[in-house]
Specification:
- The protein is α/β, with parallel strands linked by helices.
- The chain has two domains: 18-132, Alpha Horseshoe (Serine Threonine Protein Phosphatase 5, Tetratricopeptide repeat), CATH 1.25.40; 148-364, Rossmann fold.
- The protein has helices spanning 21-32, 37-46, 50-63, 68-80, 84-96, 102-107, 118-132, 175-182, 219-243, 258-269, 291-296, 315-327, 345-354; strands spanning 148-151, 162-168, 190-195, 199-202, 208-211, 246-256, 276-280, 301-307, 333-337.
- Strand 6 (246-256), helix 10 and strand 7 (276-280) form a beta-alpha-beta unit.
- It is elongated, with a radius of gyration of 24 Å.
Length: 370
C-alpha cells in the first residue's frame, strides 16, 4: 500500500441574506466532516476493511483519473480481496497515470497474490526497463543531528542521581508522540527520553511518521540502517550521561514494535552502555548479531513482553527472541500478556515496577499459546 499527502482546499461562499447564513454555515460544516473518498479509503484500509476501501478509492479515481497513487492503493485492496484480474487492471492504470516505483511494487506484500500472473510480470518488466535508464539511487551512511525529547521528573534536581528510560518508538510513530503517551512511566526517580530517527515514512491521510530503517532500500541497506540506528542510540546514551547525573544500574532502553527490534539489538550491541532492555511486541534479526554479542549481554536485565493475539508482529517473534536468549545463557523475563499489538495498562504497570527491580506479577501473565 502506498500513501502520499493529499491537500484539499475548501471554498465556502456565504449567501448575501443574513437569514440564510446559519443554515448555509451548518451545511458547509457538515460537508467538511465527510473526508474525501481517497482519505476514507486510507482509513478503511488501515482498519482492514478492504472491500469498503476499494469502493472509496474507486469513487475517487472516477473523478481523479490521473491520481496514480489512488489507482495503486485500489490495486492493493483488490489484490487483498483476491480479485486478481481487477487488481492487475488497476495496477496497470496506476502505471499509465504515472506510478513508477517498481521497487515498491516488487516489495509490497499487498500484491503478493498477483506476483505469478503474466500481466503483473509484464508490468514489472516494463517498469524495470524504464528504471534502468534512470539515475540509480545510492544510500549513503551519514551523520545527522536528531532531536531527543526529555521528560524530567517533577521536582527535578540536577544534583540528584536518576535512572534513565530511553524510548524507541514503533514504525510510523514519532519520538515526541511516543514519549507523550508513556512519560509517566518514570515517576519521580527516572528521566524518560525518546530519540528520533532520520527516516520519514508516509502514512494514511497525508501524515508523516518515522522508522528505524528504509525497508524499500533492499535487505543489505536495511541491515546497515539498523546498525547505524543502534549507533545513534549509543551516541544518545553517551550524550544523556554527559548532560544528567545518571545511575548506570538504572539505564534502560525500551522499544515497541519496530522500536522493540531496535531495543533487542541494542541489548546485544550496546551491553556496555545500559543496565537492561525492555522489548514490547518485537523480536530480533539473527543475521545482525553473533554469539559474541549474546555473550556480552549476559550481565543485563532483559524483559520481553508480547501480546498473545498480536497480528502485526506475531507472538512467535517475541517467543523466538526469548528462546534465543535462553539458549545463549542470557537471563530474560518473558511476559506474555492478553492483547494484540498494544501496550495495555497491565504492561505499563509491570514495566514500571520492573525497571525498579521488581518482577512481573505472575497473575499479570497469561499462558503461552502452543
Amino acid at each position: 500500500m502506498r500513501f502520499l499527502r493529499v491537500l484539499a482546499l475548501l471554498a465556502i461562499s456565504l449567501p448575501v441574506f443574513a437569514d440564510d447564513l446559519s443554515d448555509a454555515l451548518a451545511k458547509a460544516l457538515a460537508q467538511t466532516k465527510q473526508a474525501p473518498a481517497s482519505a476514507r479509503g486510507d482509513a478503511l484500509y488501515g482498519d482492514k476493511k478492504y472491500e469498503e476501501a476499494a469502493s472509496a478509492y474507486l469513487e475517487y479515481v472516477t473523478s481523479h483519473p490521473d491520481d496514480s497513487n489512488a489507482w495503486y492503493n485500489l490495486s492493493c485492496c483488490l489484490a487483498l480481496l483476491k480479485r486478481k484480474d481487477d487488481a492487475i487492471a488497476a495496477l496497470d492504470q496506476a502505471v499509465k497515470a504515472g506510478f513508477t516505483d517498481v521497487t515498491h511494487i516488487k516489495a509490497d506484500p499487498d500484491l503478493e497474490v498477483i506476483r505469478k500472473k503474466k500481466a503483473y510480470k509484464a508490468i514489472v518488466k516494463s517498469l524495470s526497463a524504464e528504471a534502468g535508464a534512470k539515475p540509480k539511487t545510492e544510500w549513503i551512511p551519514a551523520n545527522a543531528l536528531l532531536p531527543c525529547y526529555i521528560a524530567k521528573p517533577k521536582g527535578f534536581d540536577s544534583k540528584k542521581e536518576y535512572g534513565l528510560l530511553l524510548l524507541l518508538h514503533g514504525r510510523g510513530d514519532t519520538a515526541d508522540h511516543f514519549l507523550g503517551n508513556v512519560a509517566d512511566w518514570g515517576g519521580d526517580d527516572f528521566i524518560v527520553a525518546a530519540v528520533e530517527t532520520p527516516y520519514v515514512l508516509g502514512l494514511p491521510g497525508g501524515r508523516a511518521g518515522r522508522c528505524w530503517a528504509p525497508w524499500e532500500s533492499g535487505k543489505e541497506n536495511t541491515a546497515t540502517a539498523y546498525k547505524l540506528s543502534a549507533d545513534t542510540v549509543g551516541r544518545t546514551l553517551d550524550a544523556l550521561k554527559k548532560s544528567y547525573k545518571l545511575d548506570p544500574k538504572r539505564v534502560f532502553v525500551l522499544g515497541f514494535s519496530e522500536g522493540a527490534f531496535m531495543s533487542a539489538h541494542c541489548a546485544l550491541l550496546l551491553a556496555d552502555k545500559i543496565a537492561g532492555a525492555i522489548v514490547i511486541s518485537g523480536g530480533y534479526d539473527p543475521s545482525l548479531v553473533t554469539d559474541a554479542d549474546f555473550a556480552k549481554a549476559k550481565g543485563l536485565r532483559i524483559l520481553v513482553a508480547h501480546g498473545t493475539s498480536d497480528s502485526t508482529v506475531p507472538f512467535g517473534s517475541g517467543k523466538k527472541l526469548k528462546e534465543a536468549l535462553d539458549s545463549h545463557g542470557v537471563p530474560v523475563e518473558f511476559f506474555p500478556f492478553e492483547g494484540g499489538h498494544q501496550i495495555p495498562k497491565t504492561v505499563r504497570d509491570g514495566v514500571g515496577g520492573w525497571i525498579r527491580g521488581e518482577e512481573i506479577p505472575e497473575d499479570s501473565k497469561v499462558e503461552i499459546p502452543k
